[in-house]
Write a structure and sequence with these properties.
Layout (H helix, E strand, L loop, with lengths): L18 H7 L18 H22 L1 E5 L8 E4 L2 E6 L3 H10 L9 E5 H12 L3 E5 L8 E3 L20 H5 L1
Parallel strand pairs: 3-5
Antiparallel strand pairs: 1-4, 2-3, 5-6
Length: 175
Amino acid sequence: MADHGGDGGRAGDIRRSSLSEYAEMTGAEAPDEISHDVRSVPAPEAVDVRRRRREFAALLGEFRRTAVLVPLDSDENPLTADRGGVRWILAFSNEPALARFAIARDEGEREWAYRRVLGARLLDAGVPAVGVPCGVALDAADGDEGVLFPPVAGIVPDAVAVDLAAGATDEEARR
């Protein structure tokens, strides 16, 4: 993941979006080519949605391939935060990002134990192990630079995705 700088930056809340917005981002990709026939040219909003889906898919792929830092609580469990009925495993791109989080919590002086975990392992094994709706919050103290990976199909295993209806197949739930 990219280094967000070590200047301390602004400490603030991570940008939050509804789970349904993320669910839309994980849907099937539309073709990249746009027809020259004016009647079939998508509205600018549709083009923007496709662009944002591609960008999020690329970010998710990068996260899955990258080792992130997961701070541990006193029982050596991943540090989590509950928000909006979802438990979020806190993860950080690098030590400066973790330090910004510690400083934002006024805990910059204490030692922070953490593990390096591959993003894919965190999403595929860590999230299901929590036992409640759970996602991953990356770089939680970095404002708009932080990213949420919510518990929806296409991000976490279908068995723990909150957007899949009980008993529905993956394809049925995405319609």
